[in-house]
Specification:
This protein is an alpha+beta fold. It has two helices and ten strands, in the order E-E-E-H-E-E-E-E-E-E-E-H. Strand 1 and strand 2 form a beta hairpin.
Length: 152
């Protein structure tokens, strides 16, 4: 630990949270939640479960003037809607994000694995490149055929 002798205040390192902990910084909350896609969500109030369903996280943002919205299996999460995020791991090593605001809790349990998602994105990018190359090649073939048909 280092100290700033000029101000008299101790400089503490930024927290390091691995798999479990409480996050109060809105930017950190947003960074954690942005990688989510398909989730199981639970919404409870005063400890009573009101809603449990699956959905897709479409947007995670930080804006004190906008709401968190959950409807039609889509989630638009405003980290400003919550006091803190509690990061947990279950006994079966499943990650869980508990967003807490006074007597309300929105729990998000990922249904997708970021490692698998990245692998699928890479495969999809390669497949897309192959399709684009094929379309461009076909386009050149059509142009050459058209030129042959109109030459005298």
């Amino acid at each position: 630990m280092s100290y700033n002798h000029l101000s008299g205040n101790a400089k503490l390192p930024a927290p390091c949270i691995v798999d479990t902990g409480v996050i109060i910084n809105k930017q950190d909350m947003q960074r954690l939640l942005t990688d989510l896609s398909r989730v199981r969500y639970r919404y409870s109030q005063d400890g009573k479960l009101l809603v449990e369903d699956e959905g897709y996280v479409l947007e995670v943002f930080s804006d004190p003037q906008r709401s968190t919205l959950v409807a039609n299996h889509t989630l638009y999460i405003n980290v400003c809607s919550f006091d803190y995020l509690e990061l947990k791991r279950s006994a079966d090593h499943q990650t869980r994000f508990d967003l807490i605001q006074e007597n309300q809790q929105l729990t998000l349990i990922p249904l997708t694995n970021p490692l698998q998602e990245q692998k699928n994105r890479s495969l999809n990018a390669a497949a897309l490149e192959a399709v684009v190359a094929e379309v461009l090649s076909a386009s050149w073939d059509v142009r050459i055929d058209d030129e042959d048909n109109f030459s005298f």
